[in-house]
Specification:
The chain is built from 15 helices and nine strands. By secondary structure, the chain is of the alpha/beta class.
C-alpha cells in the first residue's frame, strides 16, 4: 500500500516537472521569438541623404531597437493605444480660439505654450492634425501635445468640424480628400504669426489631409512649413480599406469600431446635416463597415459619384513626388489600416524624393506601445520628442533643401 502511494507521488512529481519543463520551453520560445523577430530597430527608407542625415543626427531614438509592449500584435496595439496612455478624465489646459470659416462653419483651435522656454531659445509652432474622430483631448493627441510642449514648441491643435466640443453650424463635416478647412486655418495662422515657418504632425486622417494640402498647394506649403511628420496615415486608401475588410479581427473589431464612431458623429448632427438631399440617413445609420458608410455619407457629401472615386481621390501614394517640403512618415508593418504592402517604400527611395519613411516591425495603428502599464509616453512620443527638438534647434538643416 505504501509502495503504491510512493509510486503515485513520484508520478505526480514527474507530471509536474514535465508540465513545468513544457511551460519553460514555451516561454523560452516566446522570448526568443520576441527578441529576434519583434524587437528590432526601425528601417529608414529614403533616397534623400539630407533627410537621412537629419534623422541620424537628431532623432536618436531611431538608433536603438524598439521593444514593443507584450500587446505587440498590430490589432492589439491599435486598440490598446488609446487605453494605455492617458485617462479620458485628464484634460490638457489648452487656450481655445473659435474660427469661423468662409461657409459659416466653425472649428476650434487649441493652443498650448511651451514650458520653461528661455528667451534666447529658438521658437517653433507645431500644428497637430488629429485622426478621423479624434480631438485635442483624445488620449494620443494629448500625449503628442505634451511631448511637443516639453520639446519647447508652441502646440496648435486643429479640431475637425463637429469635434472638440464645437458643434457644426452648416451641413458639412470633413473628409480625407478635402483640405479646404485646413487651407483656411493655415491662412489664419499665417496672419497670427506673420513670417514664422511652422511644422506639422498629422496623425492618421489628419496626416492624409495635410498630404492633400501639400500636393495641391505646393508653393504655399514650401513658403509656410519647415517640414511635416505624418504618423500611421493611409497612403493607399483603396487597398487599406480592403485590408480592413479581412476576417476576422480586422472586419469585426477594427472596421466595426471605426464605423460606429463615424456613425455616432453623423447621428449627433443629423438635424443639421439632413437638410441636404445628397444622402439617405437611414442607409447611413444602417452601415456596418467603413465602405458602406463612406458610400452613403462621405462620398456624396463631397460630390463623388462612387465610394471608389472618393478613395482614389484620398490616396496620396502616387503623388509623393509633389511634396515640396521634407516629409517624414512613421508607420508600422502591422498597421491593420495600412500594412507594409501599402506603404510608399519605393516612392521614398526614388531619386529626388522628399519623403523619408520610418518603418517599425510592430506598432499597429497609432499604437507604438512600450511596457504594460498606463503611461503618457511610449515609442511614438519618444520619436516625436527627438524630432521636434531637432527641428526647433536645427531647422537650417531642412529649410531650403529643395533649392540646393
Amino acid at each position: 500500500m505504501q509502495m503504491n502511494l510512493q509510486m503515485q507521488a513520484l508520478e505526480k512529481v514527474s507530471e509536474n516537472i514535465y508540465l513545468l519543463a513544457g511551460a519553460v520551453s514555451s516561454l523560452a520560445v516566446l522570448i526568443t521569438y520576441y527578441l529576434f523577430n519583434v524587437a528590432k530597430e526601425p528601417r529608414i527608407h529614403t533616397s534623400n541623404e539630407k533627410l537621412r542625415a537629419f534623422l541620424d543626427k537628431h532623432v536618436h531614438t531611431l538608433k536603438n531597437k524598439y521593444y514593443p509592449s507584450c500587446f505587440w500584435e498590430g490589432r492589439l496595439q491599435s486598440v490598446m493605444g488609446l487605453r494605455l496612455r492617458l485617462s479620458p478624465a485628464f484634460k490638457l489646459p489648452y487656450r481655445r480660439e473659435i474660427v469661423t470659416l468662409l461657409d459659416g462653419g466653425q472649428v476650434g483651435i487649441d493652443f498650448l505654450e511651451p514650458t520653461q522656454k528661455k528667451d534666447k531659445e529658438p521658437s517653433l509652432k507645431v500644428l497637430i492634425l488629429p485622426g478621423l474622430t479624434s480631438s485635442s483631448q483624445t488620449s494620443y493627441v494629448k500625449t503628442l501635445a505634451m511631448t511637443c510642449q516639453s520639446a519647447g514648441a508652441t502646440v496648435i491643435v486643429l479640431n475637425h468640424r463637429g469635434l472638440g466640443g464645437v458643434p457644426i453650424k452648416t451641413p458639412r463635416l470633413y473628409s480625407a480628400s478635402n483640405c479646404e478647412d485646413l487651407v483656411e486655418i493655415i491662412h489664419y495662422l499665417k496672419r497670427k504669426y506673420p513670417g514664422e515657418k511652422m511644422m506639422t504632425i498629422g496623425t492618421s486622417m489628419g496626416g492624409m489631409v495635410f498630404c492633400q494640402y501639400m500636393v495641391n498647394h505646393q508653393q504655399e506649403a514650401q513658403e509656410t512649413f519647415i517640414c511635416a511628420m505624418v504618423i500611421s496615415i493611409c497612403w493607399d486608401v483603396v487597398n487599406g480599406v480592403k485590408n480592413l475588410e479581412k476576417p476576422f479581427i480586422n472586419h469585426y473589431v477594427i472596421n466595426y469600431g471605426l464605423t460606429q464612431n463615424v456613425k455616432f458623429l453623423s447621428k449627433m448632427y443629423r438635424q443639421v446635416l439632413e437638410v441636404r438631399d445628397c444622402w439617405d440617413f437611414e442607409k447611413i445609420l444602417r452601415s456596418t463597415n467603413l465602405r458602406e458608410f463612406d458610400s452613403h455619407f462621405t462620398a456624396p457629401q463631397f460630390g463623388f459619384e462612387t465610394v471608389m472615386d472618393y478613395y482614389r481621390s484620398a490616396t496620396v501614394i502616387d503623388n509623393v513626388d509633389k511634396f515640396t517640403i521634407p516629409v517624414f512618415g512613421l508607420s508600422s508593418e502591422d498597421d491593420p489600416l495600412q500594412p507594409l504592402s501599402c506603404l510608399p517604400i519605393k516612392q521614398a527611395e526614388m531619386e529626388g524624393s522628399n519623403l523619408a519613411m520610418i518603418v517599425t516591425v510592430r506598432g499597429g495603428h497609432l499604437g507604438f506601445l512600450e511596457g504594460v502599464v498606463r503611461k503618457p509616453f511610449h515609442y511614438m512620443e519618444r520619436v516625436v520628442h527627438d524630432f521636434v527638438t531637432g527641428v526647433r534647434n536645427h531647422r537650417e538643416n531642412l529649410l531650403g533643401f529643395n533649392e540646393n
